[in-house]
User: What shape does this take?
Amino acid sequence: MSTAKGMRPPSRGVRQKMTGLHTWTGLLAGWLLYAMFLTGTVSYFKEEISQWMRPELRPAQIAPDLPAIAQRTADTLALIAAGSPGWSMLLPTSRNPVVSAFWRDRDHADQPRRHGGRPFQTALFDPDTGKTLSARDTLGGEFFYRFHFQFYGLPVLWGRWLAGLCAMFMLVAIISGVIVHKKIFIDFFTFRWGKGQRSWLDAHNALSVFGLPFHFMITYSGLILLMALYMPWGARTGLRTPMQQAALDTQLSAYIRPGQPAHVAAPLAPMDAMVRLARQRWGSAEGLRITVTRPGDAAARVAVARGDTRRVSTSPQYLLFDGATGELLQVHDHVGAAAETRGVMAALHLGRFSDMPLRWLYFLISLGGTAMVGTGLVMWTVKRRASLPDPHLPHFGFRLVERLNISSIAGLSIAMTSYLWSNRLLPAAMAQRADAEDKVFFAAWGLSLLYAICRPARRAWIELLWTASALLALLPLLNAITTNRPLWHSLIIGDRVFAGFDLSLWAFAALHAMLAARAGRHPLRAASRAAAPARSSPVGQP
Amino acid sequence: MSTLLVMLLCVMAFAGLALATSRQQRELFGRALSPAATCGLRASGWLGLLIALGLLVAGRGWAAGLVCYSGCTSLAAALVYLGLIIQARRTTPH
Amino acid sequence: MLARFYDCLKPCLPAPPPPQPRSLARWYRISALASRITAAMLGGYALAALTSIAALALPMATPQAVLTGMQSSFAVYAGAVIWVFLARSATRAWAGLTMVAVPLALIAWRVSSAQPAMPPL
Assistant: This one.
């Protein structure tokens, strides 16, 4: 069709090598990447998931007075976090209607542990009264979020390194995929796509091509989000003293180190005035993060950091106040070019600036990415089955991939839905309840793997997909039975979060049912049909 | 709601661009359209995409607008593509 | 099973050598592939790390240079991996990586030995 030099497909040798590279990087990391993609996809709605998983908490209906909310919460924290070297609170947003805070235990004051480890206490606060809220102990949507980038359940560093390795495999898979299919991008509306029996390849190619800007951005920005862990060498070489290190830190976050206490008691200055100043400056006090160091001491400092719901950057912008007098000491509102680039990349990945329509776009395209990885994995078995000498006795490698496919795809849906089921079924007063919910997730996933190993592959696919569909479809029913926020009630009162969640569960149930039905309709006939094009056309596209 | 309208505009724009290619014209109409019609389709396609960009940036600012545009165009192109495939499958005898 | 493993990998491997006893040919292929994988995963990372250090030589404030180096390192890593598998032989793959690594290493060494003299920011 096109004859210009730049438009020729890559030469045979290059395409073969890149196809091999694409297949291997995709296959080896595919199961983990699928999990990362799916948990990442749902994480775009993690606040809504968290709301659904704490049905006892009802959102405030009126427009919140954020300065007053901050003051009330600060007053409560002065009581319950007394003696702590510092605390940090997050003001509500339209999607996150409660106040949350964490603080270091007095007893663990000197340990520089990261947020999320044991020495931190956390609590939720009612924005109207400032009192702590009690709801069932659960991680909510945060579980999926933390699984996404650190495989929650694994030690934190191991999980993050593994995620980074998978992300590099994904990056190489994307680049090699683009090299192989260079021609697609040039004339994709005219490209000769296969019909019928090549549907897996077509689906994989289409999902890859149309989501390419997103997939490339999400992969690279994901690496950037954790780059301090993966590539610390420049920082180690160039920033030797603590002061130099601090110069880098202020480019990346609004975290302020607790200074030396003055050992002079002084009540915290009015928080509402500080929040009002921030609102004046930035136009909104939504999602402000207020960090206080040495509260109750004369050396207290308050950093009011801008929320990330209104701008496409996570670079730190904050006001630094003297905690005892309330005087504005410093304004940090810009960072250097490289730091701002990082901030923008991070924001693009996290998508926190999105309004609802954009958030749904993120969700749908990310779901497409999940399907891209899934179709790639399935396609491997479909293609290889065609070249097996005996389709009923595949070699070990093939069987391994097949079982891992089933448990990573169908099994993950079952695991995630089981997590939600456990949220409704586990008693609220149970000890270590949040951990128990996570254990249910992993147990369900493990059981799916066992099931996938014990059953014939095709039956395992069908049965597990139907199981997932059933679990998803029955969940709104379980919700209606175990809480006082059933679907019909949510629809009547216009509770978008609960209604939307229940309806989405049904949509996903329908999707799984469709996949299960499709798997049931394609017996080994697919193998013989796949054999024909596999023999007559080369790997990749003509 | 306006995002939905912009998405619709993008879908129509991509449909126009697709129809401006000779291969799709042959598949859908059985023959190539006149050069004027092809040109018109291509022009209105690009115009539609440009208007969509303008609407999104006007509503959200450059940063969020560009991100939304990227998402809308990806999804719209995919939808048009899906439509073409479904159409091709329906008309091709198996 | 091993034979099937190689069938899948054939596209990645260099051209086979002139006829040799079968076992020797097989070992040649295994070692060439292992060499490439090592070059890609470890050599690529080393190249990326060198890039992130060499970036300190850029004419900008040190924290910005550090961040620039970090952010661009992944592109270097990915590029190195692609190169390793495009190269005609494992030896060429390593040679290519080394050729890029040497100037980067020189810059990185200069930067790191100049450290104590640099003013804190």
Observations:
- Chain B has one domain: 3-91.
- Chain B has a mean pLDDT of 87.
